[in-house]
Amino acid sequence: MARRILVTGGAGFIGSNFVHYLVRETDCIVTVLDKFTYAGNAASLDGLPADRVSVVHGDVCDADLVDQLVGRNDAVVHYAAESHNDNSLHDPRPFLDTNIVGTYTLLEAVRRHETRYHHISTDEVYGDLELDDPTRFTETTPYAPSSPYSSSKASSDMLVRAWVRSFDVRATISNCSNNYGPRQHVEKFIPRQITNILVGDRPKLYGAGLNVRDWIHADDHSSAVLRILEAGRIGETYLIGADGEENNKEVLELILTTMGKPSDEYDHVVDRPGHDLRYAIDWTKLRTELGWQPSFQDFEHGISATIEWYRANVAWWEPQKRATEARYREQGQ
Ligand code: NAD
Ligand code: TDX
């Protein structure tokens, strides 16, 4: 197991959950590299021991800084990204810079230092499925991304594959389904609806809400990544999921009723252009090859715990809420 791990994007949603997970479950030393964009939150790393976790404020596109940090670590787990589809439809450029050039910059550094690299990606690289399609995404599904976000992530995956083949970089890739849990930015579906209810606004459902997402708890994503880092085969891709398919309308109704509201107390708003219909992950390879299993299988319980986290941590999300909703209002969403 790597002793010193560089976690990029460690002040974001999934990256911060991974850092907390590493501190709880391992004895490794963590360095976070984060640009603290609107999505990075220093408070997400509060309470972590200073002798285990240090934070560097910087950009994954800064080649000198990345080279120095990679040189001091045994492994890199690359979470940093522009991550929100809606933002990518209005201003794609930062997605190309961070997601593509940032990944290139890290790959060049791990190539020079011969450092183990794990690349965090998304199931959205595979495009979408019909609602009644019996198949799910596997590691051999052809890439067919729909949005500027997912195409930039697909590009970054391709760079990793090329650096493995051409330069023998010791890399693995994981493509995970939709995460939920604590510390997710209020622009994303589940936290947006929970915090709308908490501030007295109505939740907002895009279109008819029949789109299906395959939900996994962020801690299960973390345990899968750690397993791949420890035992994954170099050059391989692993899909991460937890059999959590739900349509958006059902998820919203669950949030409303769990929070004591009538299940129809929400607005339908304009749909996302090019909105992917359904994602679904077949994670057989992760189970059979690496023996991984998810721990959070009760979605209703996971949603209740997430609602409680947002209730108890208003100071964490309130500063971002007004600006996020102002942006959505401009877009009619
Ligand atoms: P997030 O937006 O919550 O966090 C991204 C973090 O990256 C932030 O802390 C931000 O400050 C940092 N960052 C952005 N640009 C940077 C740059 N140029 N240099 C350094 N740091 C930078 O995102 P998230 O939802 O936690 O997603 C993390 C990763 O997981 C992404 O690679 C995303 O594609 C992937 N992923 C997310 C999901 C999901 O459901 N959210 C699912 C599968 C995969
Ligand atoms: O207010 C909303 N109303 C709504 O109906 C928002 C913000 C979203 N939605 C819908 C759109 C999607 O069908 O909910 C679904 C989930 O939306 P997002 O939270 O924006 O996630 P999604 O677009 O599915 O992408 C997420 O999962 C894959 C992450 O943001 C990506 O980073 C990850 O790669």
UniProtKB/TrEMBL annotation:
Keywords: Lyase, NAD. It is an enzyme of class 4 (lyase). CDD domains: dTDP_GD_SDR_e. Its EC number is 4.2.1.46. It holds the Pfam family GDP_Man_Dehyd. Its cofactor is NAD(+). SUPFAM superfamilies: NAD(P)-binding Rossmann-fold domains (SSF51735). It catalyses: dTDP-alpha-D-glucose = dTDP-4-dehydro-6-deoxy-alpha-D-glucose + H2O. Residues 6-303 form the NAD(P)-binding domain. The keyword NAD applies. The keyword Ribosomal protein does not apply. It comes from the Bacteria. NCBIfam families: dTDP_gluc_dehyt. Belongs to the NAD(P)-dependent epimerase/dehydratase family. dTDP-glucose dehydratase subfamily. This is dTDP-glucose 4,6-dehydratase. It comes from Brevibacterium permense. The gene is rfbB.
